[in-house]
Give the backbone structure.
Amino acid sequence: MAEGAVKAVSSKQFGETLRRDSWWAETVPVVLLLGGFGIYATLRAFEGKFYEWGPYLSPFYSPLIDEHHRWWKLSPALLILGGPLSFRATCYYYRKAYYRAFFLDPPACAVSEGNRKYKGETAFPFILQNLHRYFLYLAIIFLAFLWKDAIQAFFFDGKFGMGVGTLVLCINIILLSTYTLSCHSLRHLAGGKLDCFSCATFGKPRYKGWQFLSKLNEHHMLFAWSSLISVGLADLYVRLVSSGAIHDVRLF
Ligand code: FES
């Protein structure tokens, strides 16, 4: 009986499923949103202009390195792109999303991917996904730069003020922070690997921290999408203002 069941599963064709719901409906927005963001971000990273205006700096270009092209002739965004990209690309949630949406491996839960040889993340190149926790450290450094940019966006020619761009950059860094703080690897670092908090060094603060991060972690998917959209919109806003397509509105 068990052998028969195994044979039945292994002989399934691609896309075969007992599900009667519209399982593909979950995949379509992921393809559109992730694909659209990927195209937009690539174009912007290579554009190399319209990335700052007044106190505003696009998050795609922060930290800004060799702005005046003394030793780097291409767009400055290309120098830093690898940091945030590697963090997002290896994110546990995004992995699930793009394995399903782009590799159809599997297309959805309980939908067959056919008779592919499954190696999971135990072989090159996907074994590199295990570097996620190190990319987290890198992402925290980027976060510090983006907080600095958000604070700097309150100062117009040295005078304190606020424009729509200030709000855009502040909302963006808050969403990026929630995304980073809700990371599975960070939660694990705080206490996920412990069996006994009271036996560990700094057990009590770690327990409190782990509780807080666990609450955020429950909404990791939401933060992943909202921060992806906000970072794209923040860049778009700076680009539009910088290119003169729109004017920034000063609130005070
Ligand atoms: S698991 Fe998604 S950012 Fe770490």
Summary: The first helix runs from residue 2 to 10. Residues 91-93, 132, 183-185, 220 surround FE2/S2 (inorganic) cluster (CB under 6 Å). The chain is about 55% helix and 5% strand. The longest strand covers residues 52-53.
